[in-house]
């Protein structure tokens, strides 16, 4: 299992997940840069993702939805802020309605996905920062740790497939 550490920090308002992959940094980067690869591993296995728009360019917006086993769709948006190709990108992640309008009643997170060479492979660090402890607790209660961990743990099989 790639996920090696999960650290929710209520004082810092962050959730950090660390994962190690037996693949070079540029290969792991490709998973996030290519919408077709990303949708194979973003979201828990029982809630597959579909990226409608995806471009890792500062100022762009990625739109996606995850589909439940019952067919219900849960939408979200990534507003891409910065991109340092192959090493990290930052974005805001928000819940949205079916038209990709941000839901103002749900938490928004500021995220940094960073990738670095480590032990012959890649160490990925996923850090999400929330506006308040209540917002962080809300997503923790919704199962973000389990969902994100199960999603990240799918990446190995995609990397093995080439």
How would you describe the overall organization of this protein?
By secondary structure, the protein is an alpha+beta fold. The chain has a single domain, classed as 2-Layer Sandwich (Alpha-D-Glucose-1,6-Bisphosphate, Chain A, domain 4). 25% of the residues lie in helices and 43% in strands. It contains five helices and eight strands, in the order E-E-H-H-E-E-E-E-E-E-H-H-H. Strands 1-2-8-7-6-5-4-3 form an eight-stranded antiparallel sheet. The radius of gyration is 15 Å and the shape is globular. The mean pLDDT is 95.
Write the CATH architecture name: 2-Layer Sandwich
- Number of domains in the coordinates? 1
Silhouette? globular
Summarize the amount of helix as a percent range.
25-40%
Strand order of the largest sheet: 1-2-8-7-6-5-4-3
Topology as a string of helices (H) and strands (E): EEHHEEEEEEHHH
Q: What is the CATH third-level topology name?
A: Alpha-D-Glucose-1,6-Bisphosphate, Chain A, domain 4
Number of helices: 5
Largest sheet: 8 strands, antiparallel
CATH level-four homologous superfamily name: START domain
Report the count of strand segments: 8
What's the rounded overall pLDDT mean? 95
Q: Cα-atom Rg, whole angstroms?
A: 15 Å
Helix-and-strand structural type: alpha+beta
Pick out its properties.
eight-stranded antiparallel sheet, 8 strands, 162 residues, Alpha-D-Glucose-1,6-Bisphosphate, Chain A, domain 4, globular
């Amino acid at each position: 299992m790639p996920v090696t550490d999960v650290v929710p920090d209520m004082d810092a308002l962050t959730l950090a997940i660390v994962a190690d992959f037996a693949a070079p940094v540029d290969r792991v980067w490709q998973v996030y840069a290519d919408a077709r690869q990303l949708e194979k591993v973003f979201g828990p296995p029982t809630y597959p993702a579909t990226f409608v728009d995806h471009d890792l360019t500062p100022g762009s917006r990625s739109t996606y939805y995850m589909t439940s086993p019952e067919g219900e769709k849960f939408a979200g948006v990534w507003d891409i802020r910065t991109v340092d190709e192959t090493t990290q990108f930052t974005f805001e992640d928000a819940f949205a309605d079916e038209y990709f309008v941000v839901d103002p009643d749900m938490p928004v997170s500021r995220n940094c996905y960073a990738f670095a060479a480590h032990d012959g492979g890649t160490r990925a660090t996923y850090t999400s920062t929330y506006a308040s402890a209540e917002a962080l607790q809300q997503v923790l209660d919704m199962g973000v740790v389990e969902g994100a961990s199960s999603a990240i743990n799918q990446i190995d099989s995609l990397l093995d497939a080439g």
